[in-house]
Amino acid sequence: MDQKTLLSTIHSACARGVQLIPPNILCASIGSIGLKDPFTMPMTATLQDCLDAMQKYKVGSLLVCDAEGKLKGIFTERDFVMKVMGKVSNLAAALVTDYMTKDPVREQPEASLAFALSVMSHGGFRHVPIVDHEDIPIGIVSVKDVVDYFVQKMLDGIFDSIDIDV
Q: Can you give the pTM of this predicted structure?
């Protein structure tokens, strides 16, 4: 479906009063939206190792874990811009542990989307690591992941109401 047809379909659904977002969408668990596998780095990683991994995997954050695999920090694009850029001359000699956000807010997959969004909004960050009961990362959720989930649910509702498959 092209963008013009999609826009027209959304306008039509709005005009007919179609409920665009299911009322219980914010009650869904973080785990139900399809978590992305986290990219992890050891605490011995350098900033250069981290930047290389972020570029290779096209991700905006890395989870830093100890030898047992437990979450110890998160290193994000924002950490790089605010703490590293223009301040560190030798990225290959600087350890990520000196620049990561230590002990980041993390959630378990059972937490609701409403809670995760509230945590991100109040904390001013875009990524939340998802850990198991032993504090080992099992996923990561970003604001973009949640928005993408909402958009898909909205489109599903619209197309269900007019009986079109996308």
A: 0.85
